[in-house]
Amino acid sequence: MHRPRTRGRVAIACTTAVTVAAGLLVAPLAGAATAADPAYNYAEALQKSMFFYEAQRAGDLPADNRVSWRGDSALTDGADVGKDLTGGWYDAGDHVKFGLPMAFSSTMLAWGAIAAPAGYTKAGQLDELKSNLRWVNDYFIKAHTAPNELYVQVGDGEADHKWWGPAEVMTMARPSHKISASCPGSDVAGETAASLASAAIVFKTDDPTYSATLLSHAKQLYAFADTYRGKYSDCVTAAAAYYKSWSGYQDELVWGAYWLYKATGDATYLAKAEAEYLKLSVENQTSTRSYKWTVAWDDKSYAMYPLLAMETGKQQYVDDANRWLDYWTVGVNGQRIPYSPGGQAVLDSWGSLRYAANTSFVALVYSDWLTDATRKARYHDFGVRQINYALGDNPRKSSYVVGFGANPPQNPHHRTAHGSWLDSLTAPTATRHVLYGALVGGPSGANDSYTDLRSDYTANEVATDYNAGFSSALARLTQEYGGTPLSGFPVAEQPDGDEIFVEAMLNQPPGGTFTEVKAMIRNQSAFPARALKNGTLRYWFTLDAGDSAANLTLSANYSECGPQTAKPVSAGGTLYYAELSCVGQNIHPGGQSQHRRELQFRVTGGSTWNATNDPSFAGLNTTALAKTQAITLYDGGRLIWGTEPTGTVTDTTAPSVPGTPVASGITSTGASLAWTASTDAGSGVAGYDVYRVQGSTSTLVASTTTTTTVLSSLTASTAYSYAVRAKDVAGNVSAASAVGTFTTADPPVEVQPPGKPGTPVASTVTATGATLTWTAGTPGTYALTGYDVVRISGSSSTVVGTATGTTFALTGLTAGTAYTYAVRAKDVAGNVSVASSSVTFTTTAATDTTAPTVPGTPAASSITQTGATLTWAASTDTGGSGLAGYDVYRVQGSTSTLVASPTSATAVLTGLSANTAYSYAVRAKDAAGNTSAASSPVAFTTLPTTTGSSCAVAYSANSWNVGFTGSIKVTNTSTTPLTWTLGFTFPSGQKVTQGWSATWTQTGSAVTATGLSWNATLAPGASTDIGFNGSHTGTNTAPTAFTVNGVACTVS
Questions:
Q1: Which letter, b or e, does each residue of 304-316 get, where b requires 16 or more Cβ atoms within 10 Å of its Cβ?
Q2: Phi and psi at residue 215, to the nearest 5°
Q3: Considering 77, 276, 320, 461, which one is annotated as catalytic?
Q4: Same structural domain for residues 554 and 581?
Q5: What domain range is 707 assigned to?
Q6: Total number of domains constituting the chain
Q7: Is residue 495 part of a domain?
Q8: What is the pLDDT of residues 838-882, one digit of tens each?
Q9: Which is catalytic among the residues 413, 414, 418, 595?
Q10: Is the overall model pTM greater than 0.85, yes or no?
Q11: Is 413 considered catalytic here?
Q12: Is 452 a catalytic residue?
């Protein structure tokens, strides 16, 4: 993922829905008259799709890791918050772990196993599926650190996307983000609950203990989602630019409740799903459920239509499901999803194939249930055809699945698969690894067009959610049509060249008493990528006859690994080496500078020095760097490049025996082991192998370079024994340590939250407060500690206080306002009950005796012979009843006469006399009847009567975008001088923004222009040109009528 995912994965369709001819609404799509036939090896595609999920794994990879080019990565995730948040899946071609799409992907995979189990068994992929589901749900268990706390993102999208390299050598900070009661995320909590609950169904038969653990977490997370409602991306703003919760959380409340019902059989969850279903989104200005999108990471509403239809048979769900899938096939009300000429249903430009695949899976499952023969065939064939399109049945005759079928994509937008060591999207040119099974985004429009370009993340990125519905659809098709998985898959990839190596050249030709070398250590590793942090380089030479070892020195005039002061070392006889240390340097395939270290060094001897007979001198030149096997490179003392000269002393001594492993942090499923380090006087300790001991049998379970290891996936209430062996760089292995034994903890007890309290009753209701009382909730697993009092406003709720008893006094309320409250019981462990039924009451009205503030002095405009417009600065009212309006008074001496009562700060005066002085003032009034003092008065004189005056007006406009320039010529066509005020009305909401050659005013759509001192009076036959700049909203219709001094003019 190279960009903010507002995300192409945002709900913005790439084209508008295609209007469908009426005949198509009852007929199959063009070219769909015959039933779809199987054309591809669905089992192989499913096999490779399972491999893709293994390639997305983060953390400490298991011993049975099948992706030979992947290694451990992101091993400190969660350290910033003191948690272990390692594991899970990287989202896409990047390395952020986004919880919402990850959990959606897991749920869709589990649904596929539940709906089409025979597909996985026929493809021989059931174990691989369960391994993937266990991997990701183990991560969710880690991330669920408290009943009302869930970590939902690890990593920063902006920092991650600035770097292009393999996951194993990331160096950027990876912050952890969580939701909680004060930072709610009902969407991601509900989705994670769905993942755990659906996985619990998959594991229920063969691992009931693990299934129960999953279900316990699922129940807590759903209660959290339901109790503390909110969109996670409103609080976890780091996710908003990539996986914003556009659809909100209502769909996840339905989705999560449904999967909990399927996992538990508890009908209350089904009732909850149906109740929340009523609040799902509808099409604009209708009561019809939304149907013009599809199930994806953001919105699961569309999956719930057929799921509840199949579960209950109720007609409303059937209708909603049929309408949605009809829109994707034959169309609804004259509209249908856009289709390409080659038959792809294209919803959106970003990852178009995943939308079609998700819809296909649901359509296939739903068609299995339907008895309507027409729709059964329609939806089934749609599903087959869309999956076949992705597998190669398209105008390009090409697969969109990496490593599958004909002409598959070679350049997916995926950092680790690309394997760059230069932090470059384009170097190397070829992708170094085959990301088998990954479904790319596909065509970005309904045109079957696609370019296999790594930089095109819209069409060529891959993601865990892209493969989710796709995998499940493949399982369903394998179940129906069969297929054959590849034997011996996968074959371990072999390096495409030297990965970590040395290049060298001579800085000076041989001669004299020294040899000066420029050496470059390069790390281009990708099989898997790995960092060289304990590197040492050895330059081998001979001590020539007549020379003394005391004369030997090593110096470095340029070293990117720091100072080099070690003395040359004897390797036996006359063979010596100069060792240069890069220990502590992080030489990794992460950029131009990061992947290499340069050292320019000099080995100096005595007067008989002869460089040409030195082993490491062979092949060096003075013109350019070249690879050399004669200069050797080591990692922690282990030879990783080059060939040591003959005569080198070999280490045959094993390390000392490690200390007895001691267990700590013991849980029902894991523990940590630690032991005293071994020593090795030869090549050095390289690491340790940890064995589980069962009688006379020892099984290797872990290998580590430190003196600790973490054990996982253990069985509760079981005794375990372990021993440790040390190994050195030369491959020597110590005897086993003494055996350490411990017993895992008992399995966790399923926690029951408190029971629902009674409906609160409001009493002692005043203008600013009330008292709530309720019947106590019943304790669950733990004792009650009190209650949360929650104010409910629409679909949101806010905790306003807590009570230890069953009463609570509300204060600070607003008079005359309706309030709704509910209560939740909570226990000592932090578990919270479902909310009680709510109570609604209205506070009493407050008595308002405070008058509004005095209005501003009125200003008179648009003055004519018979009228004018008054405007003034609005009053404010703090008494509580609110501003009700104004009274406008004509002031004549000490007498004031009410002439108008507007509700806004403007009044239009009519029926005035020409050439007459008037004075007006304004009073404000509130809803309680309080009246302000009068404003200062305004005085003005109406225009004089004009007799026989006539005028002509010419108007033109020059428009652009949403602006224009208006030009007006006013001509006196009478026989007497004319003092003019021009008036006209804009017909299309235009606004004057700046004017010239007149004083311009505008009230609403009415515009007035009054002449300036130099052009206010026009002689007979004279004209004046005035103008203005204005704005419009796209329509700029010219005024058709103009007046001067209230008399209509001729318009030309």
A1: bbbbbbbbeeeee
A2: -70, -35
A3: 461
A4: yes
A5: 662-743
A6: 6
A7: no
A8: 999 999 887 788 999 999 999 999 898 889 999 999 999 988 788
A9: 413
A10: no
A11: yes
A12: yes
